[in-house]
Design goal:
Elements (H helix, E strand, L loop, with lengths): L6 E5 L7 H8 L5 E7 L4 E6 L2 H13 L3 E2 L2 E2 L1 E4 L7 H5 L10 E7 L7 H8 L5 E9 L2 E8 L2 H11 L3 E3 L2 E8 L14 E3 L28 H4 L23 H7 L16 E5 L8 H8 L5 E6 L7 E5 L2 H11 L3 E2 L2 E2 L1 E4 L11 E3 L12 H6 L7 E5 L7 H8 L5 E9 L2 E8 L2 H11 L3 E2 L2 E2 L1 E4 L10
Antiparallel strand pairs: 1-3, 1-6, 2-3, 4-5, 7-9, 7-11, 8-9, 8-12, 10-11, 13-15, 13-18, 14-15, 14-19, 16-17, 20-22, 20-25, 21-22, 23-24
Helix pairs in contact: 8-12
Length: 460
Amino acid sequence: MAEPSKVIHVRNVGHEISENDLLQLFQPFGVITKLVMLRAKNQALLQMQDVPSAINALQFYTNVQPTIRGRNVYVQFSSHQELTTMDQNAQGRGDEPNRILLVTIHQMLYPITVEVLHQVFSPHGFVEKIVTFQKSAGFQALIQYQGRQSAVVARTALQGRNIYDGCCQLDIQFSNLDELQVHYNNDRSRDFTNPNLPTEQKGRSSQHSGYGDVGGMYTPEALGARAGAYFVGFPQVGIAQIMMPNAAAIAAAFGGGLPPGISGTNDRCTVLVSNLNPDRIDEDKLFNLFSLYGNIVRIKLLRNKPDHALVQMDDGFQSELAVHFLKGAMLFGKRLEVNFSKHANITQGADTHEYVNSNLNRFNRNAAKNYRYCCSPTKMVHLSTLPQDVTEEEIVNHLAEHGTIVNTKLFEMNGKKQAIVMFETEEQATEALVSKHASSLGGSIIRISFSQLQTIRENS
């Protein structure tokens, strides 16, 4: 065995093994100060706080085979006594311990504010300041602790964890800054040592020009005082877990609550749709309709019951929205029956259509915004991602086969052409949506959703 070192060399680290998996393997033996993933070699280097902690870990795993996700990994002392910046650059990152953390949030489907970050990071030490901003890498934050050890502990405990179930993953590095400058206390920045700082003037752009523009984020008021209750994945923090992971995004979308009739407690992801018109329906048309309410995993038409289909959505919240808003909707001359299925999920097979990786899923981006537009079918549809030179006549010709068009309005928003089209009935509008969403018009793949507008004003 090599000379004892606080750096542990881990081999057979498959691509499915994450930084968080390795942290969980070694955290029981002490504080982990650095971790380097050598993906090209299926290896990792992990530095404990001191040599005795590393010795305890290796003594334990001499008698117990360490296994991660069904794969045996092999551990030994590294020839390194200390991980250097050069070692860390092997995985594209180099950071020395510092009391300020640079946090990047990946897969940020739901709003993250100063309050949210404070709830996550404060259990590991006194947080003095937080600044949030938007960079090319995505949404980021700088978290300043009172002491360096608190930052080390927080990074060890939280690296790779999700703030909300399945999304908002934390990627934490040590910053090279010495002190954060905070001029305003609001939802984007906060100095917890100086509560008397003013809030930012309304309409004024972010003052964090040195860190980047924070952009338009949801305020904590939009999430409501209960925002902390929606955290999952941090049992050691003591933040409550609830059944539905994206309640915060829906609360933000619907003004701090939930739509009437939505309980937020459903955990069934699969929906049974019956009384379909088997001569005119197919999986893609069902996808176009149900994707208004959430991301679709897979769809199966039941061959022994040709007017039945199963639709598996991303989570129970989304399936509850679909059941609530689509029950009784008219489509192709039939009134749909939409209910929760007794099946937890749809088994993948030759007769299923897969949509989990489809870039047409609407909720991969701007989830809260898409939740806000959820409604029952209406006579009015909204068209976006139109070609810049499109005309109203071309839009009418594209949709006319699906029903009587009462009125149309072509307009421009943020430099992009959009349109609203009113049909004579909700059923006609629904048929147009399921048939022509994601179709090509003038070389552009158009997007269609229901509009909650009641009329089209000529001067709007």
